[in-house]
Amino acid sequence: MTPPRERRRGAYGLPAAPRLDLPRRGTVRRAQMITTYGVGSLIAVDNESFIVSGIDNAHHSWKSDEAPIIHEHRLARVLGVRHFRLPPASDESSKDGVRVRRFPLWHSCPQCRSLQHIKGFNPPPSRNVCTKCDDEPLVPSRFVVACEDGHLDDFPYWKWLHRGNREEGATGHCGGQMSLTFSGRSASLRSIVVSCTCGVPPVSMEGSFRRSALGEIKVRCEGRRPWLEGAPAEFCSKAPRTLQRGSSAVWQPVLKSALSIPPWSDGLADRLTKHWDNLRAYSSRMEIEIYLKGAFPGEESVSVDAVMDLLAAEQEEDPTPEGSADVAATDRHLALRRQEYDQLSSGNALRDKGRKEQFVCEPPVSDISALSPFGVERTMLVKRLREVRALKAFTRIADPETSPEGHEAALSLNPTDWLPAMEVHGEGVFVRLDEHRLDEWAESAAVAARVERMRANHDRLLRERATDPAEVPPSPATPRMVLLHTLAHTLINEWSLEAGYPAGALRERLYTDGTMAGFLVYTATSDSAGSLGGVVAQGEPTRLAGALHSALRRATWCSADPLCMEARSSGAGGANLAACHACAMLPETSCEYNNILLDRALLIGTPDNHRVGFFAHVPE
Questions:
Q1: What value does the mean pLDDT take over residues 304-317?
Q2: Is there a contact between 432 and 379 (Cβ–Cβ < 8 Å)?
Q3: Quick one: which of 184, 210, 356, 547 is 20 to 30 A from 234 by CA?
């Protein structure tokens, strides 16, 4: 039955013609539009399910007119955009917002048990009800189909039910009416039964989550991207898999972040955003001075020397200098980390900068000799910092931290000059260890053996998650990396107990390659646990020495010992050793590596070999 013209629906449940009075479907915090409910994610609102639309300006999916622009020059250049934007506000007084589209499209009625596409229920516009059952609210399908390239589709209920009762390669439907029932015997998939009036035997959902389940019934990925309006289906060779609609594997953000550091942290680069292309075209100081006088007349004048410094810094920091091949994405982001490490090590005193400076990093006033027994070469008090976290893309099924860029799903159908992002203003403490002592400690055969066990397990985990073994990146596990990572976790846990900070309000930032040996612990939110000086106070040498001493003493014992300390492997894929939720793990929002590659034995040693611990020589 064809619905009347005024009730015909466009693709994905939205009205066929543009409307200015689309109903609001719920609200989320701006930060959640980056980390939890970003583009391509599924969001449940009451009894309905929607997918967040892409950022294509042509379709006005993200009405970002009121969204403030965020500038972070270094990160924008690496990601190939001009700037970033905060996600639109979603309060009732705001005129903007983010479009969502109904997904999945297959629904069931809890009263009549009918299972079909939403069009078959013929609901009124913007409603999700069964018109045959006195407007009974429909239930969106619990199951969806996704592949590792980010494509998403409805679960093929008809093919799943009729898999043994149709000719090979048949595509036509039987003409019957499918139903979805629950036996109520258990909460397992076996209790979810799909049947059809055509007479085929009912089939449960048991076995639908096996990797080869859909391939066995000749279901292939159709390459659909329902979050992008008007997107054509792509050719896809990846095997589709069944997922729960609310599973975290359905959507995982690919987040890239950077700290605002000099010379980009004083606000001048933001004022020059519209002028960069013109300024780069000039080669002499006189040409730049003439241009600036015309672009910034009178009291708005800009220092020529400051602009020259920015242009020189940009050329020096360029990860793809002229005439060289493009470097890998990991190398570009590693270059950002090295720049931050150098700036954190050298500092940037407030007395030398103005009030607009977003990065203030100073050494402590007191003597740092109290930290010498711990091998701490330098500690810096980061009294003011700004971090920008941008949503670059997202993945499905694949791990966003380890999967190659080819598996990342785009946020828009056409390239845009901006990406959604959020900024965090806070404070922190930077700790750098003595690299010479680290290298001497890492030469121990016992240390190398423990780390090699973790690295091998992590490499195996990466290979299992990858579709192409040739694209698997190597594990970052090294003695230096695991030690600094575990030490950062231990210190955050200590501050959460002694300084009154919840662990979820603190975040780590690691600098652990062959040329770096430090970490930054900073406030991850700017609310009441933000930049009030509490974290900076913990970085004073005497207080930091006490915190390290207490943290290491706590690390010698875990409520899960001796099992925790003697474990041959633990954590996801066995990528941890002596580390569990009772001793070394943090909330996942605070950790850069999803709570893997941790081993507190590298801090304090094992009962059989104390020399494995880097801090084993520290007196109790």
A1: 80
A2: yes
A3: 210
Tokens of 592: 């850069």
CB–CB of 440/105 below 8 Å? no
Closest CA to 153 of 224, 48, 229, 241: 224
Q: How far apart are CA 348 and CA 363, in angstroms?
A: 9
Q: Is 365 left (phi over 0), alpha (psi -120 to 50) or beta?
A: alpha
Q: What are phi and psi of 287, to 5 degrees?
A: -60, -40
pLDDT in tens, 141-185: 999 999 988 999 999 999 999 887 654 434 457 878 999 998 777
CA distance 214 to 602: 45
- Give the CA count within 13 Å in the CB-facing half-sphere of 558: 23
Give this prediction's pTM.
Answer: 0.85
Interval 112-149: pLDDT, tens:
999 999 998 988 887 889 988 888 999 999 999 999 88
316's tokens: 């020096």
Strands (DSSP E) found in 162-245? 178-182, 192-196, 203-204, 241-244
C-beta neighbour count of 225 within 10 angstroms? 22
Closest by Cα among 280, 212, 218 to 73: 280
- What's the count of helices (H) and strands (E) in the chain, helices before strands? 17, 24
Which tokens go with 159? 């093919």
Asked if residues 393 and 415 have their Cβ atoms less than 8 Å apart, the reply is no
φ, ψ for residue 143, nearest 5 deg:
-120, 145
Under DSSP, the state recorded for 2 is P
Q: Residue 151: what pLDDT?
A: 94
The two beta strands, 418-433 and 83-85, are parallel
Return phi, psi of residue 146, to 5°.
-140, 160
* Backbone φ/ψ region at 36: left (φ over 0), alpha (ψ -120 to 50), beta: alpha
